[in-house]
## 1
Amino acid sequence: MTLELRNVGWSVGFRKIVREVSLRVEPGEFLGVIGPNGSGKTSMMSVLAGIRAPSDGVALLDDQPMGKVGRRNLARRIGFVEQQADTIDRITVREAVSLGRTPYLSLLSPWSGMDDEIVANALESVAMGGMADRIWHTLSGGEKQRVHIARALAQQPDYLLLDEPTNHLDIRHQLGLLELVHDLPVTVVAALHDLNHAALFCDRIAMMDGGRLIAIGTPADILTSKNLRDVFGVEADVETASNGRCHIRYRVGGALDMDVETKKGRVA
């Protein structure tokens, strides 16, 4: 069971957004993806999820190019929760999660009791079983994110990919959501904005800048004062605990002015 990018690039017109990224996701891990705004995280995640085809290189699922896997099979293997995913439809929580079963349905395989059970289990996994009959628009931001994750889990994927899942949530719901995801029995890849969250929950961290993957390793290896200064333009002290986890303490007045050439390297 493998998910991998080999020398992947992705472009819009003549503009390179992702450049020569090689990355292999290890089974069972929680891999965090970090980088400044415009570093290419979202675009890289979309390629990794099979949503976008690479302009260069190849994205592989079990050593097979994703273009040959087929959309239905990709949707069964990879669950992708995008930033600020929403719906304008007046649907219930149960109906929203039921959409995750779409890759398994056909004229020969209609909805069954097994699908009901899978949806119910997905809702219970994110502690939303008691809200199955609630209307989508009555939910809070944190509740909606849990439903999006339940929808992805209803796909019964091997990989769960999350693009900045804690955006717009208060700190309690941020921590609760990441704790929930961390304990799920799937391989997780999450683009994260908060570096201390990455340090706390991730087994490995991939750091991006200017569309490139510039480093990958344990939180203690990646979240160094030098990397934070060079990539994020901030001065910070990093404390490493005996268990290998680390905590970042930002210095007041420690934001640096990035030079002009560095700013030019940022991509959408």
## 2
Amino acid sequence: MPRQSKSLSALPSQTLAPLARLGERLRAHRFQREWTVAEASERLLCSPTTLRALEAGKPGTSIGLLAHALWLFGEIDTLDALAPAPSGLTAQRRVRRSASRPVAGTIAEDERDF
């Protein structure tokens, strides 16, 4: 029996229903394409048991597998709509870069000895 992490067992009940609905939508996409669990899991490079867990909305399934499934069903763009960043935070923000690390694609002073 696999170990369950403490974070998964502490999930609020409000998170389980949306995960179950997401799994139902993924199952609907599979049914629309008339793929069996075996066919879809082969395409997703996972076991049938893992695919069933994803379709059941089990919170322990990999987010990478979810992204792969969305891509397979032609819905990967919907992932961008998940939890958009607050507009006030992203509009005027600059990313700090370490002064010790050079910017990619630039030539350092000690390399200019030609």
